Amino acid sequence: MAITPPPARRRKRRMDKVMPLVMMPVNWLEERSGLVGGLKYFLFRKVPSDINWFHTLGSATLTAFIVQAVTGVILAMYYKPHPDTAYESIRYITNEATLGWLVRGMHRWGASVFIILIFLHMARVFLFGAYKYPRELNWIVGVMLLPLAMLEGFTGYLLPWDQTAYWATVVGINLNGTGPVVGPFLAQFLRGGDEIGTDTLTRFYAMHMLLLPGAIMGLIGLHLYLVIRLGVSSPPWSKDAAGSEREERPSGDPGLVRPRARGRVAK
Amino acid sequence: MVSPPAVIVGAIITVIFGFLWARDVMSPGRASAAGGPEPAGTADAEPIPAHMGAPATPPGHPSEGPASYPRSKFLELGTLGLGAVIGGIITAPILGFAVLPAFTEDELGGVDLGPLTKYPTGKWIEATFLLNPAAGEVSRRTAFIRSNGMEGGQPSMTIISNRCVHLGCPVQAAGPRNDDQQETIKTEQAELTVTPVLPANFSCPCHGGSYDTEGNRIAGPPVRALDRYKYSIVDGHLILLQPYSVSEVEGEGAKAAIKAYGIQGPGEHVDGLSGLLYPIQPQDLG
Amino acid sequence: MSRRLQEGRAQHQRYKEDVEKRGKSFYPYAMFHDTVMSLVVVAVIVALACIWYLTAEVNEDGSSGSGALGVLYEDKADPGTTSFIPRPDWYFYFLFYLLRIFKWPDSVILGTVGIPTIALILLLALPFIDLRRERRLVRRPVAVVAVILTALSMGVLTYKGAVAEEGSEATGLVPEWIERFSIPPGDASEGAEIFSVSGCLNCHQYAGEGVPNLGAPELTEEGNKNRGVQWQIDHLECPSCVTPGSPMPPYEDLGQDNLRKLAAFLEASKGEAAGGEAAG
Prior knowledge:
The structure holds three protein chains of three kinds.
Chain A: H1 7-33, H2 35-44, E1 46-47, H3 57-76, H4 86-95, H5 100-127, H6 136-158, H7 163-177, H8 183-191, H9 198-230
Chain B: H1 4-26, H2 28-33, H3 71-99, E1 111-115, E2 124-130, E3 140-151, E4 154-161, E5 172-174, E6 183-186, E7 191-197, E8 201-203, E9 210-211, E10 217-219, E11 225-234, E12 237-250, E13 257-261, H4 282-285
Antiparallel strand pairs in B: 1-12, 2-3, 2-7, 3-4, 5-8, 6-7, 8-9, 9-10, 11-12, 12-13
Chain C: H1 3-22, E1 24-25, H2 26-55, E2 66-67, E3 70-71, H3 93-101, H4 108-129, H5 141-163, H6 174-180, H7 187-197, H8 229-237, H9 239-242, H10 256-268, H11 271-279
Antiparallel strand pairs in C: 2-3
């Protein structure tokens, strides 16, 4: 009578056979690029143990941006950037293309969600005092992302070429035009001429599709790099050193526990 | 066809790299690296600047004799110089292609607004027309036109643009419109729509600007009076010419004294202290 | 090296040690929260898209009706329009309303480039303005007040921008006025129509509509002043002749016929209470 090994051992033996197969491409990649190690570092880096839901606003903003990027690429497959065709292509996307309304709706409302999340994320960082040394540069990168995101909204607003699109753009360009000395030149550059026309639409399309998203992606990359390098800041009420940075401590105490630590004892 | 500038740039690059290659092949450093003993001059190589982080030149790299120009220096300058050339080559078309065309002036040939008989004396007509029929609907504009009768043997017209001088919103005639008397006039170039209106003033629906019937600001944020169009009369037809900006209008109708300036963007003061904020206009450069 | 910088470095060093010793790994602890939040974000976006599309109807001529979240698209752009009222997307409402606040010609530049630029510079410079190490909110009263004031003003500006009405938008309200204030048919009712299209609401308010400007009076109960139709006509023809110093522009261009109707409407405007009695 054959002895069947107990199930746990059988599973282990099967795993021993499968794992090398799984690990082979991973190891191949790691040996040649170090990417797996980088990913491991990213995933298993330590973050303060008392971070909370407020800290998810940044990654939520990133998610909204990814939604914008993906839906934007799909919309670009159908959209025709010319004053004679833009409006019709938007109507086609909305009314006829399969699920076109969903993609356009996600892109349209994703923009609003993206902007709201940026503001919330910024408010969180401000209230947590997370812009202070050594994270000043990351704050500045974040602040630069805000006008870029709003410019994305502004350039995207023209693309449907309907009445609100057109007139909001008129006002927006003229807003820039009132800037001292360089204003009129900036407005002229944005319009691509004396009047809003075909060149304006294609210009806005190029900025909306290539220039601004490129800049935003680059800055987001820098933003994330700095977060990983400097570490996630703990909440200001944190009992760890990360939060209680102004407490004086007896010398020799590395500052793990605040003298007045109430309630929760450090783990 | 290959353009001459491309040939010149190509030739320069070829010469530079040819020179570098030839120099590389003939240099004693290369020969020694190919199998000879390690040169003794390594210690004389340029020290690696601390700020450059990782060593830019491997320690054992062959170098020139101490008397000659250091190779690393040459490579550094060469890299920066060639980089600048590449930057220049790329920047020139960007500037020329993306920026300059925006500043070439559009010639406005004049738009036929139909026979003068469509514009009865003392009545306001709202005319919607194509400023540049070749550009299509994008160039559709509206103007408020009033005939002021004859002045000095010539018909006098007031043609006010409906572009708000605050930020460019469409200004509306505040008063009853006679939509049932709307008319379409066919001219040689295109067709235009004229509607009799009875404005007590002109008002802007965006930020609350309002103007009197000469285009002077009454209330709200507009920084000057409404823009006007020049015009001429050819064969009894009203021909619309270039627009111009106006700081204010004194008097009315044919007798109005118009303080005219070159056309400027909405929101820009043409006179006073604030006018100094806009010393040059794009069209000044054209 | 400044004491503050020294302090900061020491604290960051302590922070790193602390996190290394007692922190938790990003995956899966923090990442789980991030993922849940991201799912919420995507769900909200899809939900908004669905509500937007499914509640809006497309008319037979291809134009879009307005749903719970507005239209799918407006009419095609018409640069020569004389009736369209431009509005920006909601996140520019604050700027839109800011532009209305700066209603004096020499202050336009403050609203257009001045305030936004100052705000951006302040934001960029924030880490260099606030150099203290303190992070707890109870000890940062200025920061808390600043964020509350900013949020409040942005909120109020956005709200005001969202509800900002315009004189020429009032045309559709005429039947409601006639009903609500018992405006008699004939001249007075026709006058209401003229009132709504003649830019009166750019300065005056009527039944809560319009933008108060130049100190112009509310006109809902103008009739209660019992000034008489002739006074109203004279005043409309030349406001500064009847009320010296009045900034109101003359309306004689409307013609006697229209002025008579306008005057009749103003005299019939006796507010809701009086109108209610008359109806009863």
